[in-house]
Amino acid sequence: MSINTIVIVGAGQAGYQVAASLRQEGFDGAITLVGDEPGVPYQRPPLSKAYLLGKVGVAALRFRPPEYFDEHRIARIQGSVAAIDRDHRQLLLTSGEKLSYEHLVLATGARNRVPSVPGMELDGVFGLRSLADADGLSQRLGHAKRAVVIGAGFIGLEFAAVAAARGISVDVLELGTRPMARAVSTVTSRVFDQAHASWGVRIHYGQSLAAILGADGHVTGVQLASGEALPADLVVYGIGVLPNAELASEAGLAVNNGIVVDTQLLTSDPAISAIGDVVSFPSPWAQQPIRLESVQNAVDQAKTVAARLMGKPASYTALPWFWTDQGELKLQIAGLSDGHDETVVLGSVEQRQISVLCFRAGRLVAVESCNRPADHMAARKLIARHIPLSAAEASAEGFELKAFEAATREAN
Ligand code: FAD
After folding, report:
1. Which helix (H) or strand (E) holds 71?
2. Using one digit for the tens of pLDDT, what is the confidence trace for 3-27?
3. How far apart are CA 91 and CA 7, in angstroms?
4. Whether the predicted pLDDT of 62 surpasses 70
5. Does position 86 have pLDDT exceeding 80, yes or no?
6. Which helix (H) or strand (E) element contains residue 211?
7. Bridge partners of 106?
8. Are 367 and 335 in contact (CB under 8 A)?
9. Separation of CA 335 and ligand 1 centre (Å)
10. Average pLDDT in the 264-292 region?
11. N or C: more exposed end of the chain, with fewer CB within 10 A?
12. 44, 80, 106, 247: which to mutate for ligand 1, most atoms within 8 A of CB?
């Protein structure tokens, strides 16, 4: 049966991409993109980087200019979807409007986890997920003197680097013992720990937040569980996200740390696909179903669903990759390092130019490259092609990832 009406819920990275890819693939039916944020769909990564530094404006964040959507007959509705009526293949918006679909793509993303401590309502406390958040923060950055960041994950540390570059005194509270511990090896953590220290950022490990302190409705500092207090006129939290999966679970779709999808990104209802930050999916690169929060994942999953809807079904097998920019450091990660048991470090930790090769049971599973973009590109190809490389080979004097990868291609 051919599909004529596709509705996409969520106009972020994945939602925009599936609409654009459907048109690229030649889909001629109706596409409606429903999103609850105002304005033209935009990318989030610069929000905690170049946009906050004032290096790019809002126009540079947009995936496409407004006229693109009219030219490509992608109808945009600004609104929030309240419920899915699967029996009638209809969406109910909070406005009361109803919208019929033949196929539905859920791309509702994730939202920030909010610390459950007193004082979160104080003026000067921010999460960083949306353009509205970044605009609010941007206004404060000009006047702020002391910022406290809750969480030494990617977003917290990206913000810390921006704030330090803007001359603000920055303290970071981290429950764990090293930065970005969920996602990177200890060697990479060490490089970033030292870099932040050199920029004047103080990261306090093993510390948890007890309360945000304030006076006259404005934030004045934070109280740690240890009893210590740190002054602040700006507090930014980055303690992870929660998938926006309630719409799916209330409609009876399977949800388990995200909307559960099969290898082709179909939910438990064949008329509904789901993609991006909100999905838990089986991956050939992981032992368990995973939920990833990355541009690569949102874009590649969107392309996989668009191709399937155009009669080209395939399993989603793309190798995960990710990047973060902090100060002059650009970290690029290829593959998933979970459970790695051996590492080989190429380059120089002192110069903050390294690639950490992560092996699990003798197989290269991930490479973390800091300011070594050629290594990152080579690593993506090597891992995706399952080229065998042992830790002993990688440790040999003069070993270069790029040359090794090129040689494996010539050999074939
Ligand atoms: P989103 O982009 O979050 O879009 C989901 C949209 O759906 C949102 O607009 C949401 O409001 C809307 N929505 C939710 N529920 C409803 C509803 N019921 N009705 C209507 N609309 C709804 N990734 C990288 O790879 N590299 C980076 O450097 C990087 N930096 C980042 C920096 C920041 C500050 C942030 C926040 C994220 C960053 N990411 C980065 C992650 C990346 O942006 C996300 O993985 C990506 O945006 C996920 O796309 P998505 O479409 O799944 O979700």
Report:
1. helix 66-71
2. 999 999 999 999 999 999 999 999 9
3. 9
4. yes
5. yes
6. strand 209-215
7. 9, 274
8. yes
9. 21
10. 97
11. N
12. 44
